[in-house]
Amino acid sequence: MESTNNLMKEAVSNNVFPGGVLLVSKDDSVIFFKAYGYANIFSERPMTIRTIFDLASLTKPLATSMVIMKLISQKKLGLDQNLGSILSRFNSTEKGRISIRHMLCHNSGLPDYRPYYKLLCKLEPNQRKDALRGLLEKEQLINSVGKQVLYSDIGFMILCWVIEKVSGNRLDRFVMEEIYGQLGLENLFFVDLDSKPRQEKFAATERCPWRNILLEGVVHDDNAYAAGGVDGHAGLFGAAEDVHSLLSELMAAYHGSPSTGVFDVDLVQMFFKKQEPAGRALGFDTPPLTESSCGRYFSRESVGHLGFTGTSFWMDLDRRAMVILLTNRVHPSRNNNKIKAFRPKLHDIVMKHMANDGSI
To answer: Does domain 64-172 have CATH number 3.40.710.10?
Structure first.
């Protein structure tokens, strides 16, 4: 895969990102796994295949959606259960009709984003959780429930609240105990800002303009930071190999041959199925007809997700092929958007290579 290797080197040279890790697998066998560039441009610490990345919105499919799936399998939650039946504070609001399915499909009617952190960070840390929930309760719908798709962090912040209410456990603890720990994944975790700092080698992200620090091992997302580092839309950190292990277990379950009992086959198949009229899978993206970040050659039976910090994964379910690209493209500034044009080019080269060598 020399063309792939050269493209990644060019991306570093052309400042698409300071550094990155690319992992490609086919039929659960890793066929390409390499690190490029720098994890931190100021210290010139090199990227390695074991570098821990701020996965940003990969939190949505790899943590929050996994926990929702688990709670459904435990009969503690239903996909079409309404918010008002779970959280009494939503009973008297228009948001009470929103279902778990709506939030996973991003057609809840909720706004995409609000800068809650600007208010929350003026409060003492122990006051922020209740204050955030008050803001979520008061948030107004901007579309009718179920009528329009709008990618929403806020829906996944509410899902985090749902998870805590239904499970009696925090999102980070539940996902570690019930999923990551069961699969032996030590390098997928949330960074709780109240806990002792972890000593892993992290990829640096942004020199944050309002926190006045270079972020390294601290969540980049402003609202997740204000919430203490753990939320449903962002906060997950991980290394490429552990992301691959989790996705491989999901792929195996989708094809009816899980290696563990962590995931229910029928539920994985349901979560990976495109939901109409939303046109999205449950907690996962699917390729749009044009200008997809996964390029032109992934099948229609593919799922994936992007993260704001420069992370992504795409899984071709038909071909059992997977591409995981983890970068620190927001280091040192989020204003670098070159990765948008780079992602489809990379995926096209990878998939062409697999087609040419007969592996797909």
So the answer is: yes
pLDDT digits (tens, 9 = 90+) for 201-226: 999 999 999 999 999 999 999 999 99
Cα–Cα distance for residue pair 219/101, rounded to 1 Å:
27
Question: Is the CATH code 3.30.70.1140 the one for domain 2-58+186-356?
Answer: no
What is the pTM for the complete model shown? 0.97
How far is residue 99's CA from residue 155's CA, in Å, rounded to a whole number?
Answer: 10
